[in-house]
Each structure stands twice: as C-alpha cells, then as structure tokens.
Design a protein that fits this description.
This protein is of the alpha/beta class. It folds into two domains: about 120 residues, Rossmann fold (3-Layer(aba) Sandwich); about 60 residues, Orthogonal Bundle (Arc Repressor Mutant, subunit A). Helix content is about 50%, strand content about 15%. It has nine helices and five strands. Strands 2-1-3-4-5 form a five-stranded parallel beta sheet, sandwiched between helices. Helix 3 links the parallel strand 3 and strand 4. Helix 6 packs across helix 8, helix 6 packs across helix 9 and helix 7 crosses helix 8. The longest helix has 22 residues. The termini are far apart.
C-alpha cells in the first residue's frame, strides 16, 4: 500500500515528532516535511511539494488571519487540510478545516480522522466535477485575452498565488494546458466573443 504524504506545519518540535512517530508506527501516512511556520519560504516549499494532506496548527497564523487559515493554505496547495488543536480555538474558526485533531486523540482516532479528511476532500472534488466555477470562468476569460497572472490578480484583488491555483484547476478540469487551447475553449463555450480580440 502506498503511504499518503503529509506535510506538517507545527512550531512545536515535540508535537511534530510525536505525530511522525505515530504515523510511522501505523504505516498508512508518512510525514514528508515539517515546517515550523507559514512564512513565505514555507509557502513556497508547500507549493513545490503537493502533499496528499496538510496538518496545520492554526497558531502559525497571526491572530488577524487565523479565521482565514484554510483559505491561505488553499492558495498554496489543493489538498485536504486538518487542524491540529494545540491551544483553545473557537469552533467557528475550526469549521473551515476538513477535520480537527485533538492532543488527546489516540492513534486509531488520529488515523480515522485523517482518512475522513481525505474522503471529504475527494467528495468535494467530485461534487465540483469538471464544471468551472464562476471565478474560474472569469480567470479563463482573462487568460484567453492574454492577461498576465499579475494583471489578473490586480483586477480581482486576489493574490498571484490564488490566480495560479485557479489556473491549475482550470487546466485540471478542462484538460487543456496551452493558452491557445484555453482561448478556443472559451470561444466554443461562449465565454468570450470574437469581437473581444479586435
């Protein structure tokens, strides 16, 4: 059986090593990297790794962005995200995650929760299907018109990494990798008009 890759974002070496030890003894999940924070360098490493699952301690986010932690992670990777509750956190903030781990969960419960998070993420992906979301259609139109990622980000007041994530999703859903191909797709699906190019 192939092990599922886990990226752990946890400032406590004690907690990180404890989880690694549990996963090693259970055999289903493997920690491929531990990041102590959510700095720009950590975000770049996360983008390059593409794990099956991210476990994050929400305390790595500053207080103002903690409520949007899941969304910040979504800009870096498209995978299941599990919160590790090491300190008291409000229930509203925890609802954004696919699952929540507690410090007193036994190994069997931890593995069950990780499986649940992966299944939940797969169901969400199936529910989304191959149809482009409204925002993905907007991004596709911009790409077809020849706009750069930075221009698209500025237009919609989102980060460049969010634009890149949308473009990856568009490519995954359409199966088209080239700008020319995406332009033809946009034309055939009446997302743009030939007059837009004159």
């Amino acid at each position: 059986m192939n092990k599922r890759s886990v990226l752990l974002i946890e400032p406590s070496a004690l907690l990180a090593r404890g989880l690694e030890s549990i996963f090693n003894s259970q055999g289903e999940f493997e920690v491929v990297m531990v990041l102590p924070d959510f700095s720009r360098g950590s975000q770049a490493r996360l983008r390059n790794l593409s794990p099956d699952l991210v476990i994050v301690d929400p305390i790595v986010f500053d207080y103002g962005s903690r409520a949007n932690g899941r969304a910040l992670l979504a800009e870096c990777c498209d995978c299941a995200v599990v919160a590790l509750r090491s300190t008291p956190l409000d229930e509203e903030g925890l609802r954004q995650y696919d699952e929540t781990l507690g410090l007193f969960d036994d190994p069997v419960t931890l593995i069950r929760k990780l499986r649940s998070a992966l299944e939940s993420r797969q169901e969400t992906a199936r529910a989304e299907g191959d149809e482009l979301s409204a925002r993905e259609k907007e991004i596709l139109v911009c790409v077809a018109k020849g706009m750069l990622n930075k221009e698209i980000a500025d237009r919609y007041h989102i980060s460049i990494y969010t634009v890149i994530t949308h473009r990856k999703n568009i490519t995954r859903k359409t199966g088209i990798k080239t700008v020319a191909g995406l332009t033809v797709y946009a034309l055939l699906n009446n997302l743009i008009d030939m007059n837009d190019f004159e």
